Amino acid sequence: MAQGWLGLEGRVVIVTGGASGIAKHVVTTLHAADAIPVIADITVETGKEIDGVYCVKCDVTNKENVQAMADAVIAKYGKIDALVNVAGINLPRLLVDVKGEHPEYELDDDSYNKMFDINVRGMVYCAQACARQMLKQGGGVIVGMSSESGKEGSQGQSAYSATNGARDSLIRSWAKELGPYNIRVVGVAPGIMEPTGLRSPAYNAALAYTRGVRVEDLSTDYRKVIPLGREGKLDEVGNLVAFLVSDRASYLSGTTVNISGGKSRG
């Protein structure tokens, strides 16, 4: 993607969860396009830099902490042009452990609350804090990272899918509320992507059990389920986000863009 075409030079863009996974690639893409990304992540220290990108420590489930993060960005840069909500968690869980072999992989209060607290409540807190600043500035962009699971459901991931369905609904509603104030709200829903490096053996064990397969059988021949015949690249998500926060996407709002290689239930 050629620099300059997007016109992101000097745009301050907060990326939650930006120290790892898809969010890290979003940060890298924005930085390469001469934007000013800010990594908001619970694992970083405020004031530090990662590869030249300013960091702010932030627990997205804590409203006061989120507001402090937004205030820190405003104090440093004087504005917030865009927010990219990526911070999230996926804990594979069955509604009922039919086999009765691993009750720890059955949906319970702890796993349910953790996913909704981070994925939904966290998105609300971050959008709220940043939208207040955008209203003062006269405009901005809010991007919510969703998932194709929020539209299609996912075996062994019902609660996670529900959080993404909630994110999509928030995006549509906020676009209606904030549109009159020149604030666009859009979503990005990745499908099957290349590994982010965040998958742990514990996650893979849970996912395999909830899907009734062995861990070694989790991989699949993507040519059978994805029309483009391959998994998505993390940089492709980063490119899409960079486009959406730019003025090149100035008439896109209230929609979630699937980036899934053509994959659907049909």
Question: What is the N-to-C succession of helices and strands?
Answer: EHEEEHEHEHHEHHE
Average of the residue pLDDT scores: 91
Q: Tally the helices: what do you get?
A: 7
Percent range for β-strand residues: 15-25%
Question: Strand count, sense and closure of the main sheet?
Answer: 8 strands, mixed
Shape: globular
Class by alpha and beta content? alpha/beta
Low-confidence stretches: none
Question: How helical, in percent, are the residues?
Answer: 25-40%
Biggest sheet strand line-up: 3-4-2-1-5-6-7-8
E-strand count:
8
- Whole-angstrom Rg: 18 Å
Quaternary state of this entry equals single chain
Distance between the termini: 32 Å
What do these coordinates show?
There is one protein chain. The chain has 266 residues and is α/β, with parallel strands linked by helices. 39% of the residues lie in helices and 15% in strands. The protein has helices at residues 21-32, 63-77, 109-137, 149-152, 158-178, 201-210, 234-245; strands spanning 12-16, 36-41, 49-50, 53-57, 82-85, 140-145, 183-190, 256-259. The protein has an 8-stranded mixed β-sheet, sandwiched between helices. The radius of gyration is 18 Å and the shape is globular.
